[in-house]
Amino acid sequence: MTARGRITLGVLIDSLGADVVRPLALPHGREPLVGSPVIYDPEEPQTGLDGAVLLVSGRPSAEILARAGESGVAVVVVKPGTCDEQALATAAKAAGTALLAAPPELSWGQLYTLVDALLAMVAPAEDPGAGRAADLFALANEVAMRVGGAVAIEDLAMRVLAYSTVEGQLIDDLRRQGILGRRVPEHPTNPEEYAAVLRSDGVVWSYEPREFYPRLAIAVRSHGEALGTIWAVQAEEPLAADAERVLAEAAAAAAPHLARINLAADEARRFRDECLGRLLRGVGAVDELATSFGLPPGEPVTVVTLGPYAGVADAFAASHVADLLRTAYLAYRIRAATGVAEGRAYAIVAAEASAPLLRRITMDVLSRVSERLGGSWRAGIGRTVASVAAVPAGVRQAEEALRAVCGLFSQEPVGAHEELSAALFLMDVEAALRAKPSLSGEPLALVTAHDAKHGTHYVHSLTVWIGAHYDVPRAAELLSLHPNTLRYRLRRIGELIALDDPDTRLVLALQLRLSGATKPGG
In 72-149, which ranges are E strands? Predict the structure, then answer.
């Protein structure tokens, strides 16, 4: 096992996520330190494995766990279906070794890469001074002491990767909340402030939010690509005179760390998206896939999809939206599988489609997406299906709902499939008639021609009258006319078309609606 830094078992589990590793036994809790991953080989002597993450392929046994405990292995990882989980958990507790389960679809090579990349958070890194910083936290402390202010290192998702703990340095509530939640708190000024830092090649002063201390920030880059940011708080005393140079050196030192962390995150995201894609299509062992996401296979689920109002989202935007969904569901302790497929963010949620909380969460996420990414996003919610086996049907419904809320016949940003039957019908009719002359032909064409020739406003009057459900007094009020004036106008229109004929009225209403002349709600 190579000499690398270590992370706690809790960091390993939280960073990889429930869809990559699932705890079966934690005899010493989440505090033990774990080191480099090792793929188990029964032919090799088990030496030098102190603190290792042992990846046991094949069929694990209680004997293997006992030997792992004797060799100082911190964690053993197995795959469900190849063993009796309860028996192995008992053996792991006896051996004093943590036991985790990985999903069958994840290759051992992929898991090895994920664990190895996560160790970058504590791998050696260049210190901006003459010494060496043991990890990102040590780097944050070194920089904080040199600049004279508390320091935080963040990734592009505004997650706090490391922070300084220098005694006596003041921090404000914004920094305190970021440390406790390991994520920068939401604030309306965040998008503009972070965009300014990421646009700059050097340091940038940030004075927003005004109620908190000013901050000196710099982007961390590798080969021109932004990887994260470093922030130094200026409290009661000014920062050091060379603070800008120190932050620039720190950004260079942090770049290898963040590059490997991003690699781990990208690898985990790709794997998660691949698994989600199979679950959305109903391909493979869907029950096992659902279990790997923490979804009970036999319980009802609802599919939610988010996409831009027009065009296709880029990969970063879609991934960011999926991350926002995942965070929102976790905050409410709602089980969900989230990810990206075909340029959209998807979620398979263990909740009823009609649940007010599901719609509220979706609306909140859309609001944050608009603040962070700009543009206009919409969300479609499928009907609740009986189990994950029926998810493909829920996907089709969610996509139809998204198509409807992005179309001409709905003004709401979020729509459930069961509420959108009329909009979907109108969209299908419009698509079928789009290239045909009947869409703008008679009877509407006769009224339109009369307006053009005589300067009348019969089409508008019909639009309002039909939108008012043929209520003459109500339509006259909307048109600022006397009801008798509108009745006279309708009689004149009746000389052009058979306005008393129910079929004529139906066709005229459809022509007006499909041509966009009428608006939802009249």
Answer: 75-78, 98-101, 125-126, 132-133
